[in-house]
Every structure is written in C-alpha cells, then in structure tokens.
Amino acid sequence: MNPFRRRDSRRAGSVAVEFTLVAPIIALLGLAVLDVVDFLRVSLRLERTAGEVANVVAQYQTLRAADFASVFDLAGRIASPYHVTDSDGAVVVSGLANVGNGVIVLWQRRAGSPGYRSAFGTEGGAATIPARSADLVLAIGQGAVVTEVFYARKPWLLSGRFLSGDPFSRLQSFALQRPRMVSILRVSAS
C-alpha cells in the first residue's frame, strides 16, 4: 500500500467537507448581490421616469385635465416593467408656485395607489421642500413642476430577511423642473 495515496484521499475528503460548508454561504451572498443589483435597477428606472415626466410636463403652456391621461401613460411606459401607475406604485405630478405668500402646491394629480403621500404637500396647501432639494428657491411669480414616482418593490425570498426595510422595499424618486413656456404652469378645466 502506498502512503501517498492515503494522504490524498484524506485531503479530498476535507475539501469536500469545506465545500459543503462554504457553498450555501456563497449562494446566499450571490443572491444578495443579485437582489442589490435589482434594487439599483429599479431605483434608476424610477429616477429616469420622474425626470422624463417632469421634463415633458414642463414643456406645456397650459395643462388640461385630459392631458394627464397621456402623462401617466408615458410614466407607465417609461417605468415598464414596473407598474408604477397601478397598485404597486404611484406617480404624483404637482405644480408649485410662489404667488406672493410663500410656495404653495397650486395643483396636484396622481395615478396609482393612494397609499403614497407626496413629500411636497397637498393641493392648495403650503409646499414642503424636502431637504434633498433645499436648493429650490421660487421667487414671487415663479413656479416649478414636481414629479414623484413611488414603487413597492418585493425583495427576493432569501434576501428579504436582510433587505426588507423601507429603503429597500418602498422606493421613491422625484424630479423638479421649471416650466419652459410660462412662469407658473396652471391646469385648465377644459
């Protein structure tokens, strides 16, 4: 009997045991990385959707109530395959204006789930400017368009235990634009 052969079989056995112990950890790490990549992909899609919709709305001279159907359809197509205008999310488009007594939410329209509140306030009320957009200053007679996009993301089963908090499951993005054709963008009834 060869003594070298015996040592090789022991080494092969220890490698098999080590692989059996390490493989599940590597698999979980791989799934967590894939989930983080999915999180980033959804976040970037929401950011793009908010920016594109705000850009389109800022080009109107006057918005009609009927125009919002095409605006929300656009948001749904940009965000696809994520259903931001259904029960999984919401799109909120607001017009902010300083008409002499501070910045107010002049008008606000939404599509999707009513469970998401605008960070900028409600129609007719004082506008709340979030800290991440504190550089927005509206002088008297100036306005801005805000598009907020919300989405309820479901983390994968294995990483859901680690990545299940609000920052990973209730995503939101917003974009601000100044109207291009007018100082304050208004909504007409017709």
UniProtKB/TrEMBL annotation:
Residues 13-54 form the TadE-like domain. Keywords: Membrane, Transmembrane, Transmembrane helix. Pfam families: TadE (PF07811). It comes from the Bacteria. The chain crosses the membrane at residues 12-34. This is TadE-like domain-containing protein. The lineage of its organism: Bacteria, Pseudomonadati, Pseudomonadota, Alphaproteobacteria, Acetobacterales.
